[in-house]
Design a protein that fits this description.
With 311 residues, the protein is of the alpha/beta class. The chain has 3 domains: 147 residues, no CATH class; 70 residues, no CATH class; 72 residues, no CATH class. 54% of the residues lie in helices and 14% in strands. The protein has 12 helices and 8 strands. The strands form 2 sheets. Strands 2-3-6-7-8 form a 5-stranded mixed sheet, with helices on both faces. It has a 3-stranded mixed sheet with strand order 1-5-4, with no helix packed on it. A hairpin with a 4-residue loop joins β6 and β7. The protein is elongated and about 75 Å long.
């Protein structure tokens, strides 16, 4: 297809009956090459947390591409897109250049945000306040350029790209230490899963296997972290404490969830000197309790926390 075709949301039926945040509609089109009419799916709401694969397609310029099923001609669907990413409180609307007035753009924003509100309410989620103000971006190209610029500073994207470039187990371990906060997020697993599916869809099975192996190894470390956190949380629940130690006990609970040393320091600095002494006492009790349980991973972590307090 030599030219793009404009589509306005709400003029046809909703394809996804599961009330997902991301919304796709079936839109009627006519191929400008062979003149045959057909329906093509078009995304009008994209939730980046829910569908990282669609975010990847957007960044690569493929999201609104379509093929005529009759003559095979390729073309671009011109349609609005509401982009939402709750991790960064982003709500961006790509407004087609055919939307001529600010009032029409505002009406479009209200319609698409309304779709997202309905989906969030259906899943029992609260409506974030930042959704009351949507940033308007000129067309899908403008949104793509804006997000590609953001990705240069996205720690998750940076970490995953570095992960996929490792060539040895030693490199992998070093990278995991360097980017542990980003790679221990569930979002890292979601992104890697989407990349595996993307490689499979392109029949690049070698890449799919490589990414799958990296994902499996990362999941092992993530599960180890979650197990350690759960074990330490149970041990803390058994510690004998007094009401006056509530703040110190809460700080210890926060510390055993930490990944970065600076998180430990930051939590400790929120306590006054007397509370820090209480924290140290509770930490020593936890170490004694975990020594009795013979949990080497948890013990190593708590001993490292003890070393940090002595620096």
């Amino acid at each position: 297809m030599g030219r793009s075709i404009t589509y306005r949301p709400g003029s046809n039926f909703f394809l996804d009956t599961a009330m997902a945040r991301s919304r796709q509609e079936a839109a009627p089109f006519q191929c400008p090459i062979c003149q045959v009419a057909f329906e093509a799916p078009v995304w009008i709401v994209l939730d980046a947390e829910e569908r990282p694969d669609l975010r990847t397609a957007l960044l690569q310029g493929d999201l609104h591409q379509t093929l005529c099923p009759h003559c095979g001609a390729a073309g671009t669907i011109t349609a609005p897109l509401l982009y939402h990413d709750g991790r960064y409180q982003q709500s961006l609307l790509a407004v087609p250049l055919s939307v001529a007035t600010p009032a029409a753009a505002q009406e479009l924003a209200e319609q698409l945000v309304g779709f997202l509100h309905t989906a969030l309410e259906a899943e029992g989620s609260s409506i974030p306040t930042y959704l009351s103000s949507v940033e308007l971006v000129a067309d899908l190209d403008g949104l793509q350029a804006l997000l590609n610029g953001d990705d240069q500073d996205d720690p998750l994207v940076t970490a995953v790209e570095a992960l996929l470039s490792t060539q040895s187990a030693q490199e992998f371990q070093s990278l995991l230490v360097l980017h542990r906060t980003a790679l221990m997020q569930d979002a890292a697993d979601t992104l890697l899963a989407a990349l595996v599916e993307q490689a499979r869809a392109s029949d690049d099975h070698a890449t799919a296997r490589m990414i799958g192996d990296q994902r499996a190894t990362l999941n092992y470390f993530r599960e180890t972290l979650q197990t350690r956190r759960a074990t330490l949380a149970r041990i803390i629940d058994t510690l004998p404490t007094k009401d006056a130690e509530a703040a110190s006990l809460a700080a210890l609970r926060t510390i055993v969830q930490a990944i970065e040393p600076q998180d430990v320091y930051a939590t400790r600095l929120q306590l006054d000197p007397a509370q820090q002494i209480q924290l140290d006492r509770l930490l020593d009790q936890a170490i004694s309790a975990i020594e009795a349980s013979e949990d080497e991973t948890g013990l190593e972590f708590l001993l490292e926390i003890r070393r940090l307090r002595e620096l």
